[in-house]
Write a structure and sequence with these properties.
The chain has one domain: HUPs (Rossmann fold). It is 43% helix and 12% strand. The protein has 8 helices and 8 strands, in the order H-E-H-E-H-E-H-E-E-H-E-E-E-H-H-H. The longest helix has 28 residues. The radius of gyration is 21 Å and the shape is elongated. The protein starts with a helix and ends in an 8-residue tail after the last helix.
């Protein structure tokens, strides 16, 4: 069984080998535990690494200062995107998207009617965070793009290269407990949402990433933001409920659901 030091040595070796081939690198940084770990592993190369983070205009307040402090020894590039404008055009992000409420797919059915637009969260995240970061790397002149992605998260594997840029995922074999153990071993405290919420935080008003834990955290830490979050939650979930209700008569008629009383 691998020890923590084995995992650290393996990740450091990947970074050392990559930095021998590349003069400039960019680290995608959310401020979460994983990117925080990679940031620390990159410390010997801090004069050759730019840390890039995306601010959609809805970054959690404590993360703004946390990222600034965590990256004080690095060149930090804050890429600003416009969540409000994207939502106006494409809709509020959700895990479930009723097709009639999609900006493109629903246009035939509702061309002459009012509808609340709902968008899939992955497209939203890609447009406001992932793609702007990738575009920045392409424009920066860096030839190494470092991403703190772990295999056990279940995401699609990152490509090894995008154009002239090599992509490196140095802690891909780590797990969340290993990340926490590593940070504790070097005396680094992750953002204050941990361990209550064991993920990085993107947009505080995103219905698709709101959980019971994030609601409780917001109610305690940022009660003034709760009313606006509730508006976003209601917009997404009431629309989903309306779409589901349209399907219920057929399900009841088929016997798959009990008849309404």
């Amino acid at each position: 069984m691998k020890s923590l030091q084995d995992y650290v040595n393996q990740a450091q070796e990947k970074i050392d080998q990559a930095m021998q081939k590349h003069e400039r690198a960019v680290l995608a940084f959310s401020g979460g535990k994983d990117s925080l770990s990679v940031l620390r592993l990159l410390y010997p190369y801090r004069d050759r690494v730019t840390v890039a983070t995306a601010d959609t205009g809805a970054m959690w307040p404590h993360m703004v200062e946390f990222i600034k402090e965590a990256c004080k020894d690095y060149q930090l590039e804050v890429i600003r995107t416009d969540q409000a404008a994207y939502w106006r055009k494409h809709g509020v992000p959700s895990r479930i998207v009723p097709i009639y409420n999609h900006a493109q797919l629903g246009f035939m059915q509702h061309a002459h009617g009012n509808r609340l637009l709902i968008n899939d969260w992955l497209s939203c995240h890609t447009t406001l965070i992932s793609k702007p970061l990738s575009d920045y790397v392409d424009q920066s002149g860096a030839t190494l793009y470092i991403i703190a992605q772990r295999d056990d998260e279940g995401y699609v594997d990152q490509p090894k290269r995008t154009g002239d840029v090599e992509v490196l995922t140095p802690i891909n074999e780590w797990t969340a407990p290993i990340v926490f153990e590593y940070l504790a071993s070097i005396g680094i405290t992750p953002p204050k949402q941990y361990p209550e919420i064991e993920t990085s935080l993107d947009c505080w008003n995103c219905p698709a990433h709101t959980t019971e834990q994030t609601v409780r955290f917001m109610q305690r830490e940022y009660p003034h933001l709760v009313p606006e979050l509730n508006v976003c939650l209601y917009a997404a979930y009431s629309t989903v409920a309306d779409a589901l209700n349209a399907e219920l008569p057929a399900l009841r008629a088929s016997g798959l659901l009990p008849q309404a009383e």
